[in-house]
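PROTOCOL LOG
Step 1. Enter all chains and additional molecules of the complex.
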Amino acid sequence: VRGDGQELRRMSFFFQELVNGITTGALYSLVALGFSMVYGVLKLLNFAHGDLYMIGAYVGFFVIQWFGGAANVGIPVPLLLAIMFLLAAGVSGGLGVAIERFAYRPLRDAPRIAPLITAIGISFFLENAVLLLFGAQYRIYNTPEFISLSSGIRIGSVTIDTVQIMVLVLSAALMAGLQLLVNRTTWGKQVRAVAADREAAEMLGINVNFTISMTFFLGSALAGVAGVMGGLLFNQVTNTIGFIIGLKAFTAAVVGGIGSLPGAMLGGLLIGLAESFTIGYISSTYSNLLVFALLIIVMLVRPSGLLGQAQLQKV
Amino acid sequence: MEAYPVKRRLIIAAAAVGSLAVAGCSSSSSSSTAASSGGTTSASAAAKTCVASIGLEAPITGSVAPLGQEQLHFAQLAVAMDNAANKTQITLVQGDTQLNPAQATTVSQQFISNSSILAVVGPAGSQEVEAIGSPMGRAGMAFISGSATAVALTTGKYPTFFRVVSKDSVQGPQDANYIVKTLHPKSLMIVDDQEAYSTGLVSAMVPVFQAAGIKVDHESVSQKVTDFSSLVAKVTPATSVVVLPWQIAANAQQFGRDLAQQHKTAVIFGTDGLFSPGTFTINGSYVSSFGPDITAIPADVAIASAAKAKYGSFGTFGPPVYAATHVVDEAIASVCKAGQTPSRSNVLTAIKNTSEPASILGQPISFDSHGDLVNGKFFLFKINSTGKYQLIPSS
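Step 2. Run joint prediction.
Step 3. Record the structure below.
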């Protein structure tokens, strides 16, 4: 009986880490999608992408304050959440479009290093602008005040709370929706055409600037939504939270195959699970070490990422 | 250098806050804090003879900016209040180190090359002190930290370094002994945040736990991490205490939420940075702090009120910086009163001779020959169900 109890605890522990890993991975995937989309159409590593996640998280926080604060929300919680997600998507998406228009578009034909450095500059600009505007203090979502920690599913000692369920369902829906949008719509065809050959797409009458702007909007909106999810899950917002998630999402995009949307999703989940199981079964000390070792191994075995396609070079 | 009576402090605080407001000195908009005027003819006459600058090294931006901003605010407040009290004209020059030793080195070089800066308040982190200790020593510039607690800093290798807080070799064993004797854990988890401050405290605590036969699960997680769900899953039913010697209270709050979400009952025992009544409110948790809760010290009412009115709520990182700044201000004022022109050398000597019978920290301030605070104390608080911090008297 004692052995069975230990076995049950081991299984519970495994499933708890699995749930934690998938939840975090879903967040990474959403942010990684934006990285991959932008890279797909512009071949640009948009290092400011993590900061759009941060902006989304702030928008979510201010929406909560708008409607009376976490302990005293004046509207139904589902409506509050809908407003948080929509507004965060809109603000982050709009900001992404503005960044593309004013910072990246003028450099579209410049050597690749120029927009890359600009992206890093934009990242610092956003972080410090938010610091100036909203101060350095941590803003706390206080999610349990309006979504009870005891709500959700509990199987044995495995707990999946309502926020985790919401993150998983919404992430899956957004990823599926994005896949449909890119693969089944005219706009999706245009995006793929621009990604394949921008000049040829332009000659075929595709409005390249509009297509790129829309790509930035969608990718940034996903980061904004992920920011609200992060705020709900991790409860805290500050101007530097975008850095680490941006780095992880970038890693996820590269592991999955940068430019590939299914690759970004897969990469995000892999990174989330790798982190979770490393912390659970080895040590939290080595989680980053092993995550980035995973990146190196994947790069050595498949330089184009797990689902990426090797680029043909004309000689 | 006697502590001000409460009434006088109130008047000075009001004058200081008023002058700060008029001068429009905000943390975000000025790179230096101009001294507030004394408001009288004699004050301006005296100010002409006692003009100096002091540097402030703090993580004003970056991941621990909330602590750095608090330190900045209290340094500004101390300068304003001391200028008003001493009729000096001391200005504060800000240096943002981001808790990064490389950045601290750059800032220190700037301060050293600025001949108007006579002493420095800061830096915040022990790792930063290690980086700048030698160049500051060569420049003969005194620097006083309000939060660097590593034991190795005061072995005599940095002759111009001082601190107004006690060191890890006092706090670590004191906290560990309290945990062993009061909370009686059979198994505990201790999680460092990969910074010198945190690993130093862990090194001081773990031997005490091991000597008591407690099973210790030592984990490590970056300050930048905000997802603790996987780590919390490792907290076993037998683990009754989780020790978090962290600097970011919001992270500990999330850790506590993750414990609750996974139905774990371990008690959190945190240090210094977790003293943040508005942020870390997990019921039943303990926080050990190198600074007292100055809102509960009657003699500090004026300063606490002025700080709250001007900057909002605060934790325990600001008051020690106020104390450090006050030591420098008083040293400069004492040099001026002696009829000398303040220089790095005579200000350093005056700081070495500091003997304040009372301070904002609720204890006297004087330094031993290595720059350590004499008879430094730590304070232990327990958080109740309303999120209020209650001082544990025996601590």
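Step 4. Note key features.
The longest strand of chain A covers residues 152-155.
The two ends of chain A are 69 Å apart (CA to CA).
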